[in-house]
Amino acid sequence: QMPGTARHDREMAIQAKRNLSKTTDPVERLRLQCLARGSAGIKGLGRVFRIMDDDNSRTLDFKEFVKGLNDYAVMIDKEEAQEIFRIFDKDGSGTIDFDEFLVTLRPPMSKARKEIIMQAFRKLDKTGDGVITIEDLRGVYNAKHHPKYQNGDWTEDQVFRAFLDNFDSPYDKDGKVTTEEFMNYYAGVSASIDTDVYFIVMMKNAWKL
What we know:
By secondary structure, this protein is mainly α. The protein has twelve helices and four strands; from the N terminus they run αααβααβααβαααβαα. It folds into two domains: 3-105, EF-hand (Recoverin, domain 1, Orthogonal Bundle); 111-207, Recoverin, domain 1.
């Protein structure tokens, strides 16, 4: 587990639950419902949509959209769902592009935050192929300090895999972390941190940047 991320994750989830009662903006409400599940909450919703997208069109119609939200147990009434759908269906075609939807749902981040997240990503992505794998981590991350390695429960590879699983999509863990997954994860963490300065200090300390 990354230093601090579990704690931030908890704080962020608590904060999201608290803010839910205060906001009336339907997109913000949906965002907060996802974040109330932790930093990976928005990715989880994306995964539900991907499963439903049988024809691989990367689009959803209203019926699929509502079904996805229900499958993910998001509390939402039909009027609110229609309002959100209309916001995303910019051209009025009756379908929404769910990649665009997920990017918009992600909590907004300043340029400075995005840059420090990318710096951490590049440090971990030893091979520079845009994906972080166990191979990449061997050169950057010392598994031997992990308590479960020290007491013999886990091998080095298991430590690495658990580490990658933090950032991976919750229901689709493949041991590879893409730039987008990493960015989505930290957008969740970022939502609980008020100032850029504090976020950047936290990232620098966590990743020794």
